[in-house]
Amino acid sequence: MFPKGLNPLEQEANQKVIGIAKDTGARIYLVGGFLRDALGGIEREPRDFDFAVCDTSAIGLARQVAEKLNGHFVLLDLENDTARVVFQENINLDFAGCVGKDIETDIKRRDFTINALAWDHNKPDEVIDLVGGMDDLKAHTIRCISEQNFLDDPLRLLRAFRFASRFGGTIEPETLAMIKRHADKLSQVAPERISYEFFLTLEADNVFPIVKTMGEYGILEVIFPELKETRKVTTNAFHHLGLWDHTLELVAQAEARVSSVPEWARLSYKQEIASGITRLAATKAACLLHDIGKPGTWNITEEGRHTFYGHDKVGADLSEKIAERLRWSRPLSRFIVKLVEWHLRPGQLFHQGEPTQKAVHRFYRNCGDDVPELMLLAFADLGATRGPGIEGENWNSLENNLIELFQGFSVFKEGQISLQRFMDGNEVMKLLAIEPGQIVGEILTSLEEAQGLGEVTSRAQAEAFVRDLYKKMHPERPSA
User: Fold this and answer.
1) Which domains, ranges and CATH numbers included, belong to the chain?
2) In what side-by-side order are the strands of the sheet with 92-97?
């Protein structure tokens, strides 16, 4: 029944908990994620184990497990009798009191059939399946056990999409109908819980169909009410899609682009920008928010031209408020806000023809290590933009410009690594006889730029450059 290496009796942590439970007379069942993933064919190293505890206190058993196994006890919910034991090996054991004090009632109060399987160590060759979870696992079907279970915890409305993305599964029609009826209740859930589930959903490799369904059934607009107005913005000379569809299409375009970018970029996408959230998942979120400033800046001229002046800055301000509302961490917030504010800049470099090397290098320096993700957003935006005003050679030219800009970043980075630093901040202050301040940083940035362009190649040239620059910045002050 269980794949090799994933039988519950083969798991050391599970064996130890069973032994302690036997000693204390506690009746426990292994439930939740381990069983679902093991029986559903998801290969991963077992790190998290969930136990339903009947006839005794789950918190009390967790305390004993922590004490006897030298784990760290974490009280999760006193009222609902739940606790966690954490070990240094990143193994987590969760204990929860059975709802209704028996496993049968507990199972029927869970969210989805695939999460309602249980295993009793006294009957190791059987899996308790009262609601058809095994059949739904095989069919990759996400099915709510009952509508009341959605109402008991509306976060489950969002979790349905997370499990669909994780298993490459389909949410069955009746469950989707429930989601549509109760989507607004998701707003009652703590923002931290919503963000956690939302970004876990975006971690899937091909999440666009799921995101599209979230939009169709009202979930996206509950999480981001700012998206509602995008439905009103129509097609125009540059956009063959209305703004709502254009916004969702960016997620599809970004995901399709990942496989063709250089390896150094894919490595960046895999890095975490915040705990448990990769830079790629955060970029997909930025795709959904990149144009939220457009509805408030939309204007149609007498000639019929659609304009959205300043929508990037307005969108960044709105994204900042979203980040505060959903309690995003500062690194995550800064990253997404930056991508929204900067999403036009790669294309703007080419508005007046071929940009100078100085302009390109300044773009690289200002964007820094976020270039791979900003460029992915720019490619996605261009891919979702195919109106009559940007067809054929015009579109292909922009595509080639972005490719060249993207590829040039790795060359720029390599040059920066090998670049000899002729002067530091202290040396600049000593040379000019000035105090610390913002001007020192500005001078060093300009010096680095001049070195990167080959305009400064020696210490003597660096000193002369610094003196001349300072004189231009402050002509009234003589340099030392």
Assistant:
1) 8-139 (3.30.460.10), 141-223 (1.10.110.30), 226-418 (no CATH), 425-473 (no CATH)
2) 72-77, 82-86, 92-97, 48-54, 27-31, 117-119, 128-129
